[in-house]
Design brief:
The chain is an alpha+beta fold and about 270 residues long. It is built from eight helices and twelve strands. The longest helix has 22 residues, at about 195-220.
Length: about 270
């Protein structure tokens, strides 16, 4: 097994950095990062699309397994090297359960994992602006639900859209190759709408409502997460509502919000 050798934060930053600076002509992707990053950036909201829709990413690290005794080579699931990332089993895989519930209302929700191994490959891919083309987007809407505390994994092979979810192995035919992300974004154009204060307030209210329902449904004795929903946005404008939604998504789900659509001034 060869570990990626980087952090989820580093991989996620590189993934977002590359697409935010790519010239797609009539298309733009604007990551909405937590307040600690943006609070001093006056006018950051000028980079928001004029018309667009919302995407959600949770970044994972994948391991490359290629030895003959790797589990899914040994049992002939794969005939050669494959990538694997693990799902967090804590509290009966609560994170995956939350993400599945989020994806039910937001189908553009994905696990994102690298298709490279080691610090050296990461560095060369970053410098060559190939992080996107060497990434895999796994749609949460197509993942299986989990209702136990066992360790589960997702595996895939480089270049193939098929992915598998384990421990009980199930095959899924569709994932998104990072090299095709521009087409993924353009296919979402039928969902685009004006990104204004109305859009932003609706995004915030919907996010808060889903999180509130999730907390209630978990029936946990720990109610501390409810304080996240009590603080209203300091700014009641487009940027304020979007920023607050981003904060909630980051803290509760570990998701990064990206708004995709038509650039302003087009």
């Amino acid at each position: 097994m060869i570990a990626t050798g980087i952090s989820e934060f580093t991989f996620g930053f590189a993934f977002l950095f590359e697409q935010a600076r790519r010239d797609w002509g009539s298309l733009t992707a604007a990551p909405i990062l937590p307040n600690l990053y943006q609070e001093g950036e006056l006018g950051w909201d000028a980079h928001l699309p004029a018309n667009g829709t919302d995407f959600y990413y949770q970044f994972k690290l994948s391991d490359l397994l290629r030895q003959w005794n790797a589990k899914y080579i040994l049992d002939n699931t794969y005939q050669g090297p494959y990538f694997r990332f693990s799902l967090h089993r804590r509290e009966d895989n609560r994170q995956h359960v939350r993400l599945k519930n989020h994806a039910a209302d937001h189908p553009n929700t994905y696990y994102v994992a690298p298709e490279f191994s080691g610090q050296t490959e990461f560095n060369s891919s970053f410098l060559a602006r190939q992080i996107l083309s060497r990434s895999r987007l796994i749609p949460l809407v197509d993942c299986d639900p989990i209702n136990d505390g066992e360790q589960h994994y997702i595996t895939f092979q480089s270049g193939s859209p098929v992915f598998r979810q384990h421990s009980e192995t199930t095959i899924h035919e569709r994932s998104e190759l990072g090299s095709n992300i521009e087409n993924l974004y353009r296919r979402s154009s039928k969902e685009w709408e004006v990104i204004d204060t109305r859009f932003a307030e609706r995004l915030f209210e919907r996010t808060a409502a889903i999180i509130g329902g999730q907390i209630e449904g978990e029936k946990s004795e720990d109610r501390s997460a409810l304080h996240l929903l009590e603080a209203r946005p300091e700014r009641r404008d487009t940027a304020g509502y979007i920023q607050r939604a981003s904060d909630l998504l980051s803290v509760f789900y570990g998701l990064t919000l990206v708004l995709v659509g038509e650039p302003r001034g087009r």
